[in-house]
Design a protein that fits this description.
Elements (H helix, E strand, L loop, with lengths): L21 H7 L1 H15 L6 H12 L19 E7 L2 E3 L5 E2 L3 H11 L3 E6 L11 H14 L8 H9 L2
Antiparallel strand pairs: 1-2, 1-3, 1-4
Helix pairs in contact: 2-3
The structure holds zinc ion.
């Protein structure tokens, strides 16, 4: 079976999200896209998928395999592969300083930065956006993603599409 491959961003033409692209919503409202995909699956009942359904499926899959371009701030040698969420009693900390590559010595640096607080070391997969609780935390992580994938500002649907379309 041939892999589905769109050649441009998908833009909603009607409804509440008219004019918005699936590509930008990956950053701005991942939770909605995830819910919407499951809803489309339910409604199609395993039958023929619409263009929107196929495009969204492709995008969600691609969101878990993007390669960061930012160099590891710990060693400065290899691109980052993970970021950490540090948990404090009054919130969380996410940021470029808390990112690292696969080297054990770089992961150790994160451990030092966390200074005894609980933390999780996670891959740059968009699905992690679903795990965060508040809108503010989600936006903070989305900003980190834009940074490590070196997306130019302002983020346009075309720039976002190019990221997801990269091999
Ligand atoms: Zn490193």
């Amino acid at each position: 079976m041939e892999e589905y491959r769109p050649d441009e961003p998908y833009v909603f033409k009607h409804g509440k999200r008219a004019g918005k692209s699936l590509e930008k919503l990956m950053f701005d409202d991942y939770e909605f896209l995830n819910w919407y995909y499951h809803d489309l699956n339910k409604r199609s009942k395993g039958g023929e998928k619409t263009e929107l359904h196929k495009h969204l499926e492709w995008l969600l899959k691609r969101g878990q395999t993007r390669k960061p371009k930012m160099l590891c701030p710990q060693c400065g040698q290899r691109p980052v592969t993970r970021f950490s969420i540090i948990f404090y009693s009054d919130g969380i900390s996410i940021g470029t300083v808390y990112t690292c590559c696969d080297a054990e010595s770089c992961k150790d640096e994160i451990d030092i930065l966390a200074s005894g607080n609980t933390y999780q070391l996670l891959p740059f997969h968009f699905i992690v956006l679903n795990r965060l609780r508040t809108k503010g935390e989600k936006l903070e992580l989305a900003e980190l993603f834009k940074h490590v994938f070196k997306l130019k500002k302002p983020l346009t649907k075309q720039r976002a599409f190019e990221l997801f379309n990269e091999d």
